[in-house]
């Protein structure tokens, strides 16, 4: 008992208090809101929040000062549309809680209960500069994948920033397959489910939803009611220009729905319409292949062209086989193509925003996370160079103002095998 | 690699011998009793020959440019001359021949074209529809009889992206990894053509795709047949190699002595090619312990594993790989997508290289192939942050000469050495920066991509007349 208490006390003491005021001085500061980086700026955090960031920010008396001269200071990356924390290894079905093909529940599935903050990928990706994630379910048995969550990647057990943060729906080609074989079937399902959600809202007691042949369960109807009320943002995956137009039509029929488009490989073809509808997009960063008949017009210029048309853009981590940290490589490439004749990319500030404040704002959390504007949660990364460059890595990270350990299972493996040959004892005895 | 050159010589000899269909022996050496035997007739080693030809180029001098020669050399403010389809000269400063195009390379870099040793373009093309899904003959665990080239769709839009965005000039197309022995690979020049044959890299040896681990045991275990375990994988491999050894013995004897020809077995032809050192083994394998078993299996049956592909745990056995002369072709940072990739780390390639093992980058991905230079940049970052020092110019070996050696084509391409094919990329900055893209790509001296000239941007038949046709991609 005493020993357990001592251990508990030690672990609490090992977490630096978030209340501590920290001033990170002298570095190049990127706010993450789309503005250009500021040289020799200061970032002040206290009580787990950003107090101030930029040029000419005074260091409060008593603050712990971190010298960032020659380094970069930014908000951590927000990885959007990821299965991080739901999955240990994607192909190991026992470890994978992203999708539920055989569940009778659809829209009401809530991934937040499966979030595992101690999965090894969480620490691995934190070491790559990712501090928050928009965790999405994967559609299995319906066009309705369920409700996603927003998490932090801190080393503490409290990972949830927001449970039930959005509803995720598949339309387009995938939606058609899930609905029984065609896009029209997916739309019939969607319209009917929305109708039933309205029925449920009007008279919950009269709503069936528990009989074997009911198409929408009570729980699903309740969830979709919150979508129709605009409490729960509706994230819809579509790629083809024609499908995007169809989905934008939803905003006319259901005025309160907070629509967000995901994927949108052909978004540039309808960029003005998306902008006019004031719908944000969470897009593939670099999809440039006609991977399917719904993405024939895919180009790396998609995001840049949408941004230029006034669409609020964020990047999705889909296709990041190396892990969520690859998002900053994606963003860097969008800067690279600004120098390719005929291509449209993003400037540095926009590119960094597309993986920080962009995804946060898309789901209505821009006031909480994703930038170093005052009042935001203090998710701060100190980099040894330009964070979009492939040569740069984080040298210190704070989540909610707490300094994070800079080790992971990957660094343990690396250190064990930097010299691959065995020493006096088997490798199993080599550890820090 | 010596082996590579030896193999090429052998192929050349076979190609010449084919029309004669004759044996090396003229009969004088044989005892009289055997003289009645029919003379041996060799089966065709190259029945779908390359019809690739280099496209016209103009002598081109790029000067005042940073040169990575692909063999570890670097020249700042240097010059490269391409002429007659070949690398003509590389130096600090070169004179432009009369009529040459002269390009000022200030702020730019020139490198050998990238060689991707692991691609499925054409076999798993875009669009990814079932009708075009031709990369895994997943109907039996041993399909050494299939040839990836017979699935290649030359209209895959992916070839053009790999050229324009990736600077890839040569690539090996492999069958998938559903099977223990998935079939023959083919090496292509990254030049669009109407036929597969017109993309084939002239004289490149064939490869045999093998796979260990989760994929074969999952695919066949789910069909309730062998192999359903890792031990089943090895058992089926060994049984097959034992048959191949017997097949080779019969055919070697026949091709030497003549008489009644043994029965042909198309799959066994490929395995015989491996056992005679003509066909290189390209072995998909993730786990360190499994790679060690495969190396013993190769010894048991007398073949050499040229390269392990993916090799996510190769860093754990860098010393074993070095000792066996087996390469590892790896990703920069992929991990955690299946059990056997759980131990992937970003330092894999760097640890291998530092330990003196042969290592290189690969894509296995239609998107990753567009950024192999960036994958190496990530490896460099991981290496340097772990205290392993590698120069940029040395790292370029992982992108061109290393894979060229493991494909047996390093005397023709893979570095900016005079006399080699003029396969080169002019980058608009340091190619290890995320902000850099190819500006021009030459294949055999022909300018096949120019970022400032929309007419030098390929559009495959599939994309022609579709939304976005001819756009920057």
TrEMBL record, chain A:
Keywords: Signal
Xref: Gene3D superfamilies: Metal-dependent hydrolases (3.20.20.140)
Pfam families: Amidohydro_3
Signal sequence residues: 1-19
Record-annotated Amidohydrolase domain positions: 302-402
InterPro entries per UniProt: Amidohydro_3, Metal-dep_hydrolase_composite, Metal_Hydrolase, Metallo-dep_Hydrolase
Entry superkingdom: Bacteria
SUPFAM superfamilies: Composite domain of metallo-dependent hydrolases, Metallo-dependent hydrolases
Name under which the protein is recorded: Amidohydrolase family protein
Species assigned in the record: Sphingomonas citri
Lineage: Bacteria, Pseudomonadati, Pseudomonadota, Alphaproteobacteria, Sphingomonadales
UniProtKB/TrEMBL annotation, chain B:
Position of the signal peptide: 1-24
Pfam families for the chain: Amidohydro_1
Origin superkingdom: Bacteria
Residue ranges of every copy of the Amidohydrolase-related domain listed in the record: 109-445
UniProt key word Signal: yes
Presence of keyword Cell division: no
InterPro entries, per database record: Amidohydro-rel, Metal-dep_hydrolase_composite, Metal_Hydrolase, Metallo-dep_Hydrolase
Matching SUPFAM superfamilies: Composite domain of metallo-dependent hydrolases, Metallo-dependent hydrolases
Protein name in the entry: Amidohydrolase
Alphabetical UniProt keywords: Signal
